[in-house]
Amino acid sequence: MAEFQRIINSITKRANKSTDRGNVAAYIPELACVSNQKFGIHLLDIKKSNFSAGDVDEQFSIQSISKVITLAMAMGLIGEQVWQRVDVEPSGDPFNHLSLLEQENGIPRNPLINAGALVIADILVSQLKNPKDEFLDYIKKLADDETISFNPKVAKSEKITGFRNYAAANLLKSYGNLKNDVEVVLDFYFHQCSLEFNCKQLCNTFYFLINRGECQRGNTFLTISQVKRINSLMLTCGFYDEAGEFAFRVGLPGKSGVGGGIVALLPNEYCVATWSPGLNKKGNSALGMMALEHLTTETGLSIF
Ligand code: GLU
Question: Are residues 72 and 154 in the same domain?
């Protein structure tokens, strides 16, 4: 256990010295204001011991990491029916590409790219009476944390510049794979992306994926088989068109977001979250990738 803390401390030292920090996402104006000098890492093991270093108390915009949580909620509500509307193959394309969607008749490649996440958002809008409130309640229960909230400023900022997401939603609608109003689905999607977490809250939320579907309080959210599906999708589709590189260097299922967060996990062992807002060319946190590569190399704990 002390080993985790020692390794995390040395990773943080290395990160703080690094000059290869990438660039903060600028296409969502609110995200462009964050400094790329930040770095935080938190690890929660299966026995609920916590280890952290760096800027771990600061909250950041989780962006695409939210796609895993909406998927979990949708699977809990309609089970295997999800797969009638979204596929489970890596796209090999950036998160916001539209060409495959057209070629494949409006069935998104997977639920972790934007088009797929919009279909999942549409499922939740259909299933829930008050989608945003009920989704927030779901996360609060999952994380056992009442303080988690949306950031309306970030949601608004993304709405103003969300041209590609509008295009994706309209394309899905034209193929009949979006049942609700485009504006309503996008409003839900921009809010889910605007959720703010710190690294520890992210680990608390994702604990159920290392613990066979049970959160820290012992409530069951998904079956073991559903957890397997989500973790496998994170491994093959969780890092835009760099999922192969992440598996190669880190060897864990995980999900990144353009806010600079990454959450990754080893089932039955640990869940880890990093935050550093500077992104590499593929849109993944530059220092987060470096940190997680060191973590699995130095602990010898990856799925491989
Ligand atoms: N809200 C962002 C978008 O749709 C999410 C991107 C991401 O984190 O991958 O562009």
Answer: yes
